[in-house]
């Protein structure tokens, strides 16, 4: 598994920067965009649109804090920040995050875990995306390449 440094990996999704964060939002996490503000997706077990927070590349920030330079602000959006999100459509490939406790094979069906991360999904009707790589047993929240279906 290679180091992932960008959220959009393939495709040209619709990108929007009009929403304001209702709380801390992490790039690569699924989000919902209600009128009250952008927040991590809390729905699980139901099909939801694939909407994901993007990195703030225009500010030189990455997808997480592991590659931030000295003196660089956090990569996460703070409450009140404008959040750049992508609306994924079938075929788009993104870096997203898998919740701990999952066992991920290539082409595994995935849906929202209810906290902004993804989890395995048993039914194709509820799946949002499929894994593009095999991760195996996940013991900590882990970045993964996924394709929207």
List keywords for this structure.
globular; three-stranded antiparallel beta sheet; 149 residues; 13 strands; six-stranded antiparallel beta sheet; mainly beta; 0% helix
Query: How many β-strand stretches?
Result: 13
Radius of gyration: 14 Å
User: Looking at the structure, what is the overall shape?
Assistant: globular
Low-confidence stretches: none
Task: Decide which structural class fits the backbone.
Answer: mainly beta
Give a quick account of the main beta sheet: strands, pairing sense, barrel closure: 6 strands, antiparallel
Please bin the fraction of helical residues. Answer: under 10%
Summed over residues and divided by their number, the pLDDT gives a mean of: 89
What distance lies between the first and last C-alpha atoms, to the nearest angstrom?
Answer: 22 Å
* H/E topology pattern: EEEEEEEEEEEEE
Description:
- With 149 residues, this protein is mostly beta strands.
- It has one domain (8-148).
- The chain is 0% helix and 34% strand.
- It has no helices and 13 strands.
- The strands form 4 sheets. The protein has a 6-stranded antiparallel β-sheet, with no helix packed on it.
- The radius of gyration is 14 Å and the shape is globular.
- The mean pLDDT is 89.
Summarize the structure.
This protein has strands at about 10, 15-20, 30, 40, 50-55, 80-85, 95-100, 105, 110, 120, 130, 135, 140-149. It has about 150 residues and is mostly beta strands.
């Amino acid at each position: 598994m290679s180091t992932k440094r960008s959220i959009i990996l393939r495709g040209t999704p619709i990108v929007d920067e009009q929403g304001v964060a209702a709380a801390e939002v992490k790039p690569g996490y699924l989000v919902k965009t209600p009128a009250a503000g952008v927040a991590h997706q809390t729905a699980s077990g139901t099909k939801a649109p694939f909407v994901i927070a993007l990195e703030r590349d225009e500010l030189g920030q990455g997808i997480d804090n592991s590659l931030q330079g000295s003196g660089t602000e956090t990569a996460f959006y703070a409450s009140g920040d404008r959040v750049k999100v992508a609306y994924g459509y079938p075929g788009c490939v993104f870096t997203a995050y898998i919740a701990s406790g999952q066992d991920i094979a290539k082409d595994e069906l995935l849906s929202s875990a209810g906290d902004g991360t993804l989890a395995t999904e048993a039914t194709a009707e509820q799946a949002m995306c499929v894994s593009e790589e095999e991760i195996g047993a996940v013991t900590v929240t882990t970045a993964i390449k996924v394709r929207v279906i």
